[in-house]
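Hi all, posting the design record for the shared folder.

TITLE: backbone redesign
STEP: 1 of 1
STRUCTURE INPUT:
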């Protein structure tokens, strides 16, 4: 049995109560804190920034799962408080030199994940396995919470797992309690959990995480 990482999407948490939200999520057994960075250019939205990440690092030791939805991520890694134990994903489509970006992320002590938009085939990762620690497969269009799963992305998870048996495969977008089971069955071992599950209010954080990790409802 693979360990399943449940990474809460902080853009879906109560923004005015972030300290309490993060404390409660960690106490409930959440894994890495997923932080969506959106630049208003690569995606049509602007989301979480560097000061929030620095503040989290001052108060908590939980590793971050930084998802860069920004143009030319390789030029901007120095803006972020990336360190040992963190995961950093950047979009294949947004980067001019994915190998170099992976290397730079690893030099900062973090794991490098290549993020794939729904239209980017998993095959682009062939040849990048040596420098990447995994892939983040977008299961909705990047940019907004609250969308519906694009069903074809499940097959993409399956293909990615077959091609990369030992890498991290993270699913991001519409990870509902039902879709979580479908995604992990297809081979995902990390789930970005937002408005569709953890923050839906259906269960408390602890119960939600238990179910998302494969426990019975
Ligand atoms: C985008 C985000 C979203 C979102 C997840 O990268 O990570 O996918 O916050 O939550 P829902 O469940 O709303 O898709
Ligand atoms: Zn994300």
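Okay, here is what came back for every position:
SEQUENCE:
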């Amino acid at each position: 049995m693979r360990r399943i990482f449940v990474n809460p999407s902080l853009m879906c948490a109560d923004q005015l109560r972030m300290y309490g939200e993060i404390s409660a999520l960690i106490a409930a057994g959440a894994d890495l804190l997923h932080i969506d960075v959106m630049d208003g250019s690569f995606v049509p939205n602007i989301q979480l920034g560097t000061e929030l990440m620095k503040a989290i690092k001052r108060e908590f030791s939980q590793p971050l799962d930084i998802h860069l939805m920004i143009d030319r991520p390789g030029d901007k890694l120095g803006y972020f408080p990336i360190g040992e134990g963190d995961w950093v994903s950047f979009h294949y489509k947004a980067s001019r030199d994915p190998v170099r970006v992976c290397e730079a992320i690893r030099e900062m002590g973090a794991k490098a994940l290549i993020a794939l938009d729904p239209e980017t085939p998993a095959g682009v990762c062939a040849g990048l396995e040596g420098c990447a620690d995994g892939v983040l497969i977008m299961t909705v269009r990047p940019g907004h919470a609250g969308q519906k799963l694009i069903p074809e992305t499940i097959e993409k998870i399956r293909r990615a797992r077959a091609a990369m048996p030992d890498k991290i495969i993270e699913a991001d977008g519409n990870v509902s309690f039902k879709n979580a089971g479908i995604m992990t069955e297809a081979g995902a071992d990390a789930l970005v959990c937002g408005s569709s599950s953890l923050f839906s209010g259906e269960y408390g954080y602890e119960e939600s995480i238990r179910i998302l990790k494969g426990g019975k409802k």
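COMMENT: The radius of gyration is 16 Å.
Let me know if anyone wants the other runs.
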